[in-house]
UniProtKB/TrEMBL annotation:
This is Divergent protein kinase domain 1B. The keyword Disulfide bond applies. It is a single-pass type II membrane protein. It comes from Ailuropoda melanoleuca (Giant panda). GO terms for cellular component: endoplasmic reticulum membrane. The keyword Transmembrane applies. Its main location: endoplasmic reticulum. Pfam families: PIP49_C, PIP49_N. Belongs to the DIPK family. The gene is DIPK1B. Keywords: Disulfide bond, Endoplasmic reticulum, Membrane, Signal-anchor, Transmembrane, Transmembrane helix. Residues 1-117 form the FAM69 N-terminal domain.
Length: 367
């Protein structure tokens, strides 16, 4: 209602607005989010299964995890202001991206992409309503990531109206405990988690294929054209896959740019390393002497993903592979995120693991 009211007043724009507000061609189905501030629904648009996302307050804000405050609708679409030139909007967008992704030489190309996207009606100019809408979208953490990362491992963006946006339908979930109510999940014993995974999850070779995709995603986060990104909630509930068992990240909301994580952690007051946590599990050491958080994370993405893969890949793994796979995953989980550990070592561990899994499933129907 808020989005359509703003659209009818000419304040916002977007490729989805007409279908959403006037023609009512967007069908809303089930609510998929258990977080009150993030509204996520399954739906149908243009005969496609889609996911509809509209935030009520900012995404990954670790400072306000428990007491989220609803956004003020009045200031929602306040930028840019009337009279802003396209040159000023370009500079404004570049400054925003620098603050959130770091000062990277590749950012002007991303600004170009944003402006191209802002021209929703493809008339080769950006109106004030279009600029306000794309600016509001940029404030959404997941939208920023969808722009910055390749489409291969994330759901494709299909359309938007103001800061409401639609992506491809939710991929299949890899963790069947995710279907349980959040309060019941911690009560499940670990042995039952594993059993659920084996009974309800895909066959082992398909799991190996999904795991290779997840490892490729970790590589991309490390070497993205737009800087380094951290996974700050590493759970199997976020590991999705397509009908062909290609890995898809189910939720990018908990992936954060390195610049944002460092900005949050550096100089933050702490008593223990638990005080130096961004999101759910991006944790940095606490300098007990200075009582300040350090900027480097204790555990890199790869070590956290390998911990997940131990539960995901070892049950049901072929007998001749289990020992070597277990050894490589153990090595991987001990990797440290500190600067003293060279990048080359991480890359080597990752490529060994990928090669081991590929060798097992290549030249079979599963590859």
């Amino acid at each position: 209602m808020v989005i359509c009211d703003q659209y009818r007043k000419g304040i916002i724009s977007g490729s989805l607005c007409q279908d959403l507000c006037n023609l009512h061609k967007v069908e809303w189905r089930t609510c998929l989010s258990s977080v009150p501030g993030q509204q996520v629904y399954s739906g149908l648009w243009q005969s496609k299964e889609v996911t509809i996302k509209c935030g009520i307050e900012d995404g990954l804000d670790p400072k306000a995890r428990s007491d989220l405050v609803p956004r003020q609708e009045l200031v929602l679409f306040d930028k840019p202001t009337r009279g802003t030139s396209i040159k000023e909007f370009r500079e404004m967008t570049l400054s925003f991206l620098k603050a959130n992704l770091g000062d990277l030489p590749s950012l002007p190309a991303l600004v170009g992409q944003v402006l191209l996207m802002a021209d929703f009606n493809k008339d080769s100019r950006v109106s004030l309503a279009e600029a306000k809408s794309v600016w509001a979208l940029l404030q959404r953490n997941e939208f920023l990531l969808l722009l910055s990362l390749q489409e291969e491992h994330a759901s494709r963006l299909l359309g938007s109206c103001g800061d409401l946006y639609v992506t491809e339908g939710v991929p299949h979930g890899s963790w069947h405990g995710a279907a349980l109510p959040p309060l019941l999940r911690p009560l499940l014993p670990p042995a039952l988690h594993t059993a659920l995974q084996q009974w309800l999850g895909p066959a082992w070779p398909w799991r190996a294929k999904i795991a290779i995709g997840l490892l490729e995603f970790v590589e991309e986060l490390f070497h993205s054209a737009y800087g380094t990104f951290y996974m700050c909630e590493t759970t199997l509930a976020n590991v999705g896959y397509t009908a062909k068992y290609d890995f898809k990240m189910a939720d990018l909301q908990q992936v954060a740019p390195e610049a944002a994580v460092r900005r949050f952690l550096q100089g933050r007051h702490c008593e223990h390393s638990a005080d130096c946590t961004y999101g759910r599990d991006c944790r940095a050491p606490c300098d007990k002497l200075m009582r300040q958080c350090k900027g480097d994370l204790i555990q890199p993405n790869l070590a956290k993903v390998c911990e997940l893969l131990r539960d995901y890949l070892l049950p049901g793994a072929p007998a001749e592979l289990r020992e070597e796979l277990g050894r490589q995953l153990r090595t991987c989980t001990t990797l440290s995120g500190l600067a003293s550990q060279v990048e080359a070592h991480h890359a080597l561990v990752l490529s060994h693991l990928k090669a081991l899994l590929w060798k097992e499933i290549s030249n079979t129907k599963y590859s």
